Each structure stands twice: as structure tokens, then as C-alpha cells.
Amino acid sequence: MKYNFDQVHNYYERLVFEEVVRRAQEPEHEDYTSDMLADVACLALNRLPARYVRHDVDMMFYLTEPERHAMELSLDEVLKFSFGFVKERLARSLR
User: Fold this and answer.
1) What pLDDT is stored for residue 93 in this prediction?
2) Which of these, 27, 11, 24, lies nearest to 82 by C-alpha position?
3) Which long-range contacts (CB under 8 A, 24 or more apart) does 81-87 make?
4) How many domains does the chain fold into?
């Protein structure tokens, strides 16, 4: 029997990566290096629940509207925390 797990991924990965890139363009984040942005993404992903899927569309199909909204709020909260945390750590290390 052949096994194929290539499509299995954490649903939040793409969302977090796209949102980190989008927010990196904002003036308050323009001084973040690529390493800092990778740290932001890792920190955010570690603070979110793992939601493994094969196809993103499957996840969206099974979510209710309140669940989708809760996920969006969680993502926003976690990213705000992560950007702030990374910036604070950098400021501490420069003192």
C-alpha cells in the first residue's frame, strides 16, 4: 500500500503567513527583518490550535459562520501579540 501525506497541512499556516506578509507592509512593522517575521509566524502558529486538513476548502465547508468569525478574531489577536512580543524582545536585546 502506498501512503501519501503530502497534502496534509495545518490550516492556519497559510493564513498566518499571508497575514504576516500583509502586516509587514504596514508602517509600524516596516523595520522587521525577514528573521523577525519568521519569528512572528512561529510564535503565532504556536499560540493557535493545530487544525490539520488535506484541502483548505474542506475546512471552510464544515465551519459555521460563528466559528469562522472566532478564528478570524483569534488570528488577529495572536498576530498582534506576536508582532509586539518580537519587537519587545529586540528592544530588550539592544539595551
Assistant:
1) 81
2) 24
3) 81/43, 81/44, 81/47, 82/39, 82/40, 82/41, 82/43, 82/44, 82/47, 83/23, 83/29, 83/32, 83/40, 85/43, 86/32, 86/36, 86/39, 86/40, 86/43, 87/32, 87/36
4) 1
This prediction's pTM? 0.88
pLDDT at 79: 98
Residue 3 falls inside a structural domain = no
Residue 1 within a domain: no
In a domain, 36, yes or no: yes
Task: Name the residue range of residue 72's domain.
Answer: 9-94
